[in-house]
Design goal:
Blueprint lengths: L6 H11 L1 H11 L16 H15 L9 E5 L5 H10 L2 E6 L2 H13 L6 E5 L12 E7 L8 H11 E10 L2 E2 L9 H6 L8 H11 L2 E7 L1 H17 L10 H19 L3 E2 L1 E6 L3
Parallel strand pairs: 1-2, 1-4, 2-3, 4-5
Antiparallel strand pairs: 5-9, 6-8, 7-9
Helix pairs in contact: 3-4, 9-10
Length: about 280
């Protein structure tokens, strides 16, 4: 990986390439989808809620999706969103993701579902998107940008590769706009970050780039719902995971998820769908 990439991103790459993390996210967090879900009940299946997030985001910009639409999924994980979009709309998706381990699973599932012709999986980083200018109609991202230590740079790169009039729809775990100083230490330390974004931060960056705000939808409570469900599932399946995920990793993850749940329950965190449009 380029030395110009932030240390935070390098740390994230090493983490997501580890066997413990790969097996945890694939077998517990949601399989094809490893982002925050939209829950209709507190005990709903994680996979169902996670797929609802994809469908809800897609509905926001459904009129833009055609077989000719080119999409870049920034921080695509296992590619579940890309497969959903390709199946429903027949569009072409470039999955950009820093974890080679996740990308191997992504390519395998694309082949198994006969979608390899629609989805290109690229090993790379959103701080330096490996694409020419103005190549994509839609940029899409789910719960990935937090892993950059240079979020402004990520948004600059998204802006660069979007066509005039292109749109960016994304989610990100964030701090609340009115979050007090110093209260997020346990959350930030666990994921090796100095800060999180916020609704106010992304709105400010959109104004800087000249983007139109199409929609910003607050789903803050869903962050707590999702981390609670993942923690419940991890504890419930601990014995079944013994041959896949180390006991030390499970212990640290249970504790780390608890920090997110506590911070979210106290109103210090935020999460939602943000949708912006680049000038034509």
């Amino acid at each position: 990986m380029s030395e110009r990439y932030s240390s935070v991103v390098k740390t994230a790459q090493e983490y997501y390439n580890s066997d413990d993390a790969d097996n945890f996210y694939y077998h517990v967090w949601g399989g094809e989808d490893i982002h925050v879900g939209l829950y209709e009940s507190q005990d709903e299946d994680i996979t169902t809620a996670s797929q609802r997030t994809v469908a809800t985001m897609a509905a926001q910009c459904a009129s833009r999706f055609t077989p000719q639409t080119r999409i870049i999924d920034v921080g695509s994980g296992y590619g579940g969103s890309a497969r959903w979009l390709a199946k429903k709309y027949g569009c072409h998706v470039m999955c950009l993701n820093l974890s080679e381990t996740q990308n191997i699973r992504n390519r395998l599932m694309n082949n198994e579902q006969d979608l390899a012709d629609c989805i290109e999986v690229v090993d790379g980083n959103f701080e330096e998107i490996p694409s020419d200018d103005q190549q994509f109609d839609i940029a899409w991202s789910q719960d990935a940008i937090l892993h950059s230590g240079r979020r402004e740079k990520v948004l600059d790169e998204v802006n660069r590769v979007l066509k005039p009039g292109g749109e960016f729809i994304f989610t990100d775990p964030m701090q609340a706009d009115d979050c007090p100083e110093g209260v997020l230490g346990p959350v930030l330390n666990r994921i090796h970050l100095d800060s999180l974004g916020s609704f106010a931060f992304y709105r400010q960056q959109a104004r800087r780039l000249g983007w139109e705000e199409v929609a910003v939808i607050d789903h803050n409570r869903q962050l707590v719902n999702h981390y609670t469900r993942v923690r419940q599932e991890l504890v419930k399946r601990r014995e079944d995971l013994a041959n896949k995920v180390s006991a030390d990793y499970i212990d640290r993850m249970v504790q780390g998820l608890g920090h997110w749940i506590d911070a979210g329950s106290n109103g210090y965190l935020a999460w939602g769908i943000m949708y912006f449009r680049k000038p034509a």
